[in-house]
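INFO  loader      accepted 1 record
INFO  loader      residues=766
INFO  predictor   begin
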Amino acid sequence: MAATYCLQFTDLAAWWRWVNPIPRRHGERPDGEVLLDAAARAQLAGWCRIPAGHLMRALPSWTAGPEVPADRNRGAGAQGWARWRVGALEWGPVVFACRLCAAQRGAGHDRVWVYRPPWRRLCARHSRWLLKAGEGHPLEFVDVSTMVGELGRAQQRWGRVEAAAQAAGVVPGEVFALARAVVCGWWEQEEFWAWEVVWVSRLDGVVAATRRWCSGVAGWGDAQWRLLVRDAVVFPEVVAVAAALVDKGLVEQAGKQVEGLLRDRAGVEPFAAMLGERLGRPWLASVETVGTPGPLARWVTVTTREQRRPDGALPLRGFKGKWSVRGPHRPVEVGAGLLLLAPSSPADDSGQDGGATGGCLSRQSVARQPSAGPGWALRQRDAELFAQGVERARCQVERFGHLALAHTENGVVDGFDLGRWLARRRAEALSLTAEQAAQLAQLDPWWNPPWPVGWQRFWYRARRYVGEHGPVHGADNLDGLAQGLQTWLRRQILLYEKLHPGQRELLAELGLTAGEVERFRAWPARRRHPGEALSVAQAYAVRFGHLAVTGATVIDGFSLDAWLSSARRRQRTAGRLTRLGTRLSALDAWWNPPWALSWQRMWWAAHHHVHGLPEGARWWPDAPGAEGALAWLRQQHAHSPLLLPGQQQLIADLMRIGGRGPVWQPRISDQAWQTLAELLPSRPAGDRRYRSERQILEAIIHIACTSHSWPHIPKELGSFATCRIRFQRWHADGTLARICHTVLPESDTHWQQQLADYIGRPAVDR
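INFO  predictor   done
INFO  writer      dumping tokens
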């Protein structure tokens, strides 16, 4: 608030009395909260000019203000009380919010914090896993673009897990904490990493992607990075384990297999076997039964004991309950782990990993390293998997000639997901050894191109076609090629200047050099790419203010009228707003009206004459003048019942300008009439004229200026039949010609020139 109004914090804080004054030496906390009583809340709402109800919905601590005793508030009047509080103790963990999402909501690009439980840390829109604030490192998020799909599905599944936990009378947070302790316990076991494959690829991809956002944190090794990304890597398994823990059928089935006395590991092996089948890790039971019993073994033991208790007995709660996590089983948090890894050691000075073993971190591993070296089993397993993947890649090259595989189910070759394996290798290309990179480059020099792999895969298809039919040429408009290949090549020609130099070299191997691109673009009747046609339509709309194109309209060799007509037919056939229609509607909302385009074009002319031309726009060649456009507008208003509802609304919007709409205004000035009255012929004997000759001359000039038919003259000018007869008589005896050649005031020269042009036309055009 103080920063918003360019004040100091003390200027506002002095308005309140503090239950516990803020120590200035502590600085700013990301989870700091100021709790206000009723009087202070009223003051804050007044300063913000925001209703208190809105602030109540926005701030979780709005109604949690301090209850000040009456004796302490004695004599204070309406002065409010405030209390300093650590928000994480009341509302949950504080994490860094996604700056991109916050900027879109108007929060600027400053650092933002948000209360977020550990199962809602994913920003799927920007592929970021949000990190907890106050953990002693400068990073705000982890880049999870390599596994955002898995994390998104896991976060959606958590909703069902939470509902099942509430139905069973369990706090969802306790279920998540226990599942996280179980999975993080596996993370800290060397035996688990000797079998694990999925986490290896996730860990490498996430670490490599996150390092691209920063140049690295000084002094950090593999142990710090693995600790930082651990929660993001294991989150899908945490949700799966939590779903198994609240599955009544699975728990009852595991309890029935336990016989005899309940010891430390009683029943954990059958439950771990069923859990391993769910997680796709059938070897999980053998890992869970090794070493000290973990949180899963304790949970199974307590659950089995509760099943054997008589009916009606209440389950144990609190520290003795099955959902509590004991101190030795709690995973090492990031802040504490970084402090444990902070002291330097000889291993750290040599640039090696001084932290976790097997890609994990534990309190014991920080103090004592195994004799085989940190992560020895994991590195050994990685080398075996890489050799296996290279052998599969060699078979792929021998069969198809390249390694541009899709990262989909089509990339599975003989039961091995080679497409996913190659995608992981591309994500960790910077961490590959020189020998590994050379092996892959020897198989396919373009196995990791600096452009999308999909582009490279299409290029191989084009190269196979060129090898069978010869190089492509730009002069033949790419006719005769397959539809998919033709579309792809046309797009490359459209974006040729934006392509990577390596892409241009590869296109030249197909025969599509820079000269061939120019020859293709010079083809007079070539088919245009939708993006190019849309750019022409956009330029036309900016130039003239509409897309009501009628008649032949060719711009730089492109027939805009034919293309818009085709787009209108496609949209009407589809019966809905197409994607191209959406883009065109953004340029002109009435580009595809349900009435004639000529009517819409006249409406745009009247609209621009009433409102003025948009900035930068100009009149099109056959645009009607102001007189004709406003006369047309009055005519449409008079025949409004015959129009469609949409047309009636458009006409009504323009007629409301100025309160009563555009009306007819006389054109002949009083000074000019004194001269013109002498030029008009005298009335013949017996002629009883009830019409003013000036009124008849105004009607003739109106028709000349608007080019409308005689029945459409304004009602103020009387009967059109009399005016038309008088026009024919004055035109025949030369009266109108004399009027056109008479010197009149400058204000009358405009209609005088219009009248001269009108009487000079052939009779069929009048």
